[in-house]
Amino acid sequence: MRFLKNKIIFLLTLVLLSFITCKQNNENNTRKITSVLKDKTNSSKNVVIKGFADDAKAFDYMNFINYSYFRGANHDNLFKEKINDTTIFTLESINQAQIIEVFSFGDSTNYSTRIFASPGDSIAMLIDKRGIGFNGRNASQYNFFAELDSTNTEWAKNKYKGDIKDYKKRCLSIYKRRHQFFEDYIVKNQVSNDFKRIVGAELKFEYLYNLVAPRSVTTEFGFNVNSQEGFFQTIAKDYDVERDGFFDVGDYMDHITINDFKRPELLNEDYFKRSLVAFIRSYYVNYGRLNYSTVNFKTEKEYIQNHLNGSLENYAITSLIHDYYEKGFGQGKIDREEIKNLIHEYKDKGLNPSYREALDRIDEKLDAFGLKFPEKVMAERLIGLSGDTVTLDNVLKKAKNKIKVLDLWASWCSPCISEITKTKTFRKHLANNENIEWVFISVDSHQEKWLNKSKELREFLKNEYQYRLLNTDKSSIISFLTDNRPGTFMIPRYIIIGYNDKIETISAPRPSDSLIFTNLITKIKIDNP
């Protein structure tokens, strides 16, 4: 049972990651940890995990997701060494107790769970056919989530089906069962006060996030994931006041106020951070369409500044800038100034380093506006379907009097392929009505894989505008887009080039956000009459 539950959780984690991005040259959507043979001592800020596995490959791609980073990422200061049959992972600089997500690809299956870890912990991890289990002095704190998820109360099974009141009842039922399991667990097992405080709060905010972002989207794997279009926008198409009566949104949201979020000690936790942003954006600020406009940007900014301070304010503002930029805000002359001013106001405020890094990257992308690709990038050679090679400059000249969208994708990138297949009609509309040419550039390392996938997708792609980077590992395009940090390159990636080959944006929103994408094209045309 534990094995089956862990597999479900892992697949759901993978699905959620796939909605975001794929990393270049990483068909398993994870990175291999570099083995570093060092004499490690378990300092007061280290977490040491000694692993034993029946599945030898399980430790080759082991990930420890740290949510103290801006949006959660594999722990940076992670070291691995192997001594006989034991693999030792050292997570350095764990500054306070927190929930860490653990997942890995094995030889024939995958493994996933969450653990509650504290600075100085020494943990024994066992991977076998049942899944991941833990031993050690605080084993009850490490095994809690695996045991909780065996109770058949997974959120991923709870789909919003158009009746918001029924959805709330089911959410409340799931939360009550999970919370009761937690209450019973802390009575039967010896756990720390930090565990009680942090895990109890995270279960509550997990419930609240499922309220404010109903699970209205079903993935190809059959999991139900949270809507990102805003609460009122999600339910508007289904709710009829005359039929359903008055909807008391305050009662639905359990009368949660912004004061309930004034808990900066929880900024290491995934669902607290998700809930904070979602409640501000979808409940406290916006009651209409979540359109990522200048008005909404200013309104949300003012709300955050008036109601939060310190690290909570810094996180909320960083999320505001990041999320609006991802939806195309800041890619017109007026809103570009608005977002850059806010970046410069905050990035020197002693931010969490990962917040600062997120703002720096956006700032760099905004600075590319109106520039042209360097000569080295324009001279990069691409290979076409027929095997002929051309430069990027040649490709852009073919569509000289059009706006060009460079679509960077790969045969192994599920989100890329999903965008290609579901936006065919929208791309045709842009070509016919907005004078836009779509150029597909694959970052596949292998020619055959690219050609096979291109053939499979031929009804969605235009042959005359399909290319592959001739040398992915030494690509000037990728170096330019990542400021010579190729390991940070993510796809799908959409670059919009204007009429005079000037860069309009090097990180456009996904075309599946058709309204957002259309608004961006409109801004570009207004800026370039």
UniProtKB/TrEMBL annotation:
Residues 371-526 form the Thioredoxin domain. It comes from the Bacteria. Gene3D superfamilies: Glutaredoxin (3.40.30.10). Pfam families: Thioredoxin_8. Residues 1-23 form the signal peptide. The keyword ATP-binding does not apply. The keyword Metal-binding does not apply. Keywords: Signal. InterPro entries: Thioredoxin-like_fold, Thioredoxin-like_sf, Thioredoxin_domain, Thioredoxin_ResA/DsbE_sf. PANTHER family: PROTEIN DIPZ, THIOL:DISULFIDE INTERCHANGE PROTEIN DSBE. This is Thioredoxin-like.
